[in-house]
Every structure is written in structure tokens, then in C-alpha cells.
Amino acid sequence: MILESPVSHIEELTLREFSKFNSAFYISLFNKCLFELVKIVKNQITNELKENKGAVMYDSWTWNDIRYLGIFLNYYRNQKVLERGEPKVQSIVECSLISVGPIAEFSDDSSEEDSSSSEANEFSAEVHVSHLRSIFQIFGIDLEE
Fold it and tell me: What's the rounded Cα separation, in Å, for the pair 120 and 138?
């Protein structure tokens, strides 16, 4: 077997046998690392949101009768760089995806059973704003400010 190829080591049976991480230990370790990573990323985004001002960009779409919303943050962030050996501060544009997923169900207390009005309500601006507020609450940001 040639080991110089980048994928040839996958064909080695002993390597494949010892690299299967399907035991309970590895699964719990993976879950622990994943949830810690979520906390780290959330804290990083929260700190960047508090330090910088910018714009919110979002897009919504429907797939299989489910309404999805993707939320991006665009802002300038100061970064220290070396230019010709001299330290400088340069503003760079950041674009961070902070949320993508289905929009939470919006409950309407009206007694109308008209399907066309409930469909129109489902995709209304009020539903989008409510979802945006709930996402920003995760990061400790009040949209009313």
C-alpha cells in the first residue's frame, strides 16, 4: 500500500478499526465539546455586537411549507495590522451569520378560520420582527435601542 497518497491511509484496516469513535465516551466527549463551542461563539458574537454598530441583513424563504429566516450582521471591526513594519489600526468589514432556521410559530388569537388570512399572517412582517427580537435576546441585544 502506498502511504504517500493523502487518502490512502483510510484503506488501512488497523487505522480504520481504531478510529471509529462510536463508543459512549467519544459521543459524550463530542457533545461536551460542541456545547462548549456554542458558548464560546455566542460570547464572541455578543462582545462584538456590544463593541460595534452595524446593520442587520436577513433573508427568508419557504421550503416544504416551512418558513426559514437567515440573519446576518454586517459591521466594521478595528483590527491591528502591520503596514510597512508600522503598526496601524484598520477597519475591516465583518459579516457574521448569527442564525438560520425555521421561524417560530406565531399564534393569532383571532377566531377567523380563513386559511388565506392565516397564511398571510404566517408570513407577515410582525412574525419576522418577533423572530428577530427573539434571536437578538439570545445575545443580550435590545432592538428598541
Answer: 27
Q: Model's pTM, two decimal places?
A: 0.58
* Residue 10 neighbours by CB under 8 Å, 6+ apart: 16
In this model, does residue 38 exceed pLDDT 70? yes
Quote the strand ranges of the chain, DSSP E: 54-63, 66-83, 86-102
**Cα(108)–Cα(79) distance, rounded to whole angstroms?**
46
pLDDT one-digit tens code per residue, 46-68? 887 777 778 888 888 888 888 88
Cβ contact 69:59 at 8 Å? yes
Percent of the chain exceeding pLDDT 70 equals: 69
Angle at 133 between CA 109 and CA 51, to 5 degrees: 170
Q: Give a three-class secondary structure readout of 31-47.
A: HHHHHHHHHHHHHHHHH
Cell numbers for 104, please give them: 417560530
Find, among 41, 95, 98, the residue nearest to 70 by Cα: 98
